[in-house]
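Exercise 7.
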Amino acid sequence: MTETTPYDADRARFTRQALARLVLCDHAVDVADGAAGLVATENDPDSGPGGRVSQAFQLIELAERALASAVIYEREQGSSWAEIAQYLGIGPAQAEERFAANLEGWNTAFDVPYRLDETGRKRIPQLPTAAYDPAWACEKLDRWAYVQRIGIDAVSSGLVMAVPEEELPSVTP
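Solution. The predicted structure, written as tokens, is:
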């Protein structure tokens, strides 16, 4: 698999540390968007029993993925296992063991960037999407950051109120 793709040239413009940071950013966006889904109340009637628990549990999975990306970024940045472990509340050997598979997958993806699908005809990237196509990731993440500056009234509009606002007694000072 020595064929190149347009993404290879884009990726070559970035350091591994920068690519790791893009992946961390992308995973952080997933966590933020997942958490935002729990903030809005207007769709609560459409959620089945346990739906919000399911969403909250998915946040844990997304946060774990972001944590693994943060560890990879820190290692690319030169942080030691001892420095990383102190923030995890575990020993350096435990930290290294916990994230060894993630780091190995990251490192291997640079040596073997693609695998063939079951048909043997389609190449599947081994790097996370943000590292595989960093130009797209930068555009997506910049757009996300811009949009976050725009507020909407998604919380109060969907709350089920005990008393409608128009029936509240007026209060005079």
